[in-house]
Amino acid sequence: MPELPEVETVRSGLQRHISGRTIGSVEILHPRVVRRHLAGADDFAAALRGRQVGDIRRRGKYLWLPVGEDAVVAHLGMSGQLLITDPGRPLTPHVRARFTFADGGPDLRFVDQRTFGHLSFALGGAELPAQIAHIAPDPLEPAFDAQRFMIRLAARRTGIKRALLDQSLISGVGNIYADESLWRARLHWARATELLRRADLTRLLAAIREVFAEAIIAGGTSFDSLYVHVTGQSGYFERSLAVYGRAGQPCPRCGAPVRRDKFMNRSSFSCPACQPRPRRGRW
DNA sequence: CCTGCCGCCTGCGCGC
DNA sequence: TGCGCGCAGGCGGCAG
Fold first, then answer.
1. CA A100, CA A103: separation in Å to the nearest integer?
2. In 3-state terms, what secondary structure has residue A87?
3. Residue A22, C-beta contacts closer than 8 angstroms, at least 6 positions apart
4. Phi-psi category of A220—alpha, beta or left, where left has phi over 0 and alpha has psi -120 to 50?
5. Chain C bases near protein Cβ (<7 Å)
6. DSSP H or E stretch at residue A98
7. What are A48-80's pLDDT values in tens digits?
8. The pTM of the whole model exceeds 0.90
9. Considering A59, A61, A109, A184, which one is annotated as catalytic?
10. Could you say which nucleotides of strand B lie within 7 A of any protein CB atom?
11. Known catalytic membership, residue A262
């Protein structure tokens, strides 16, 4: 579920609440949460005990918590949350992992209803964990190379939305912000990547950065209780969405009713007037 | 290599 | 009420 703005909101919350603190115990309450850590849950816990957490990092939708030269990598999947909680509070049903701290202060709980999210350990991964080496820079980080992005995108033979959702090309964009950015750039989701002009891509990239920046200020999009800040508050970007989840409601730009299409086994929302269907589309 | 499909999970809202 | 179905913010693996 969470895309870049939601993960960034979580990152800054973790920075505020756990950076600089020393990990006490690590409890794995559901083995699936560490399925990518092949050495197992006990090894994962042992590797982290007693270690001090550095500045929390993020690339796209991935987070990592540096511990010395190493790191804990976290991905929230569709329904994951990282919550800072009073350690005395009882565990709720979907808590999959819990970190306590040596100072006895608030703990960190990884809560995940659908268990698509996961945690793993990256030996020597404080700068960039090996597990996420295939994830492209996101458009808000200095390492993002717009030139390279446009060249690689133009070499693809697919639709623009599928390309935006490919985290090895550009990271951080998911279903909500893909639809919102395409709407802002007035591009239909099925536009063929190889037929897009440079000006289209420049406009699209600007739209992505703009919508990300606005959503981060709002603390992300919370449709329900599944996405919240580390302290349990909701983000309020939902009220600023132009098309996502708004089928049948008027386009904020031209008033035409927002259309909903099925694509990649999920929904795509767009304006039928501002984002006309391409003649030679791809999906 | 590139493209696109599938499975992984739980819970909710809806129509019957 | 109850049940089955479709749907939900994502990703990695794998076939072609």
1. 9
2. coil
3. A50, A51, A52, A53, A101, A102, A103
4. left
5. 7-12
6. strand A95-101
7. 999 999 999 999 999 999 999 999 999 999 999
8. yes
9. A61
10. 2-6, 8-11
11. no
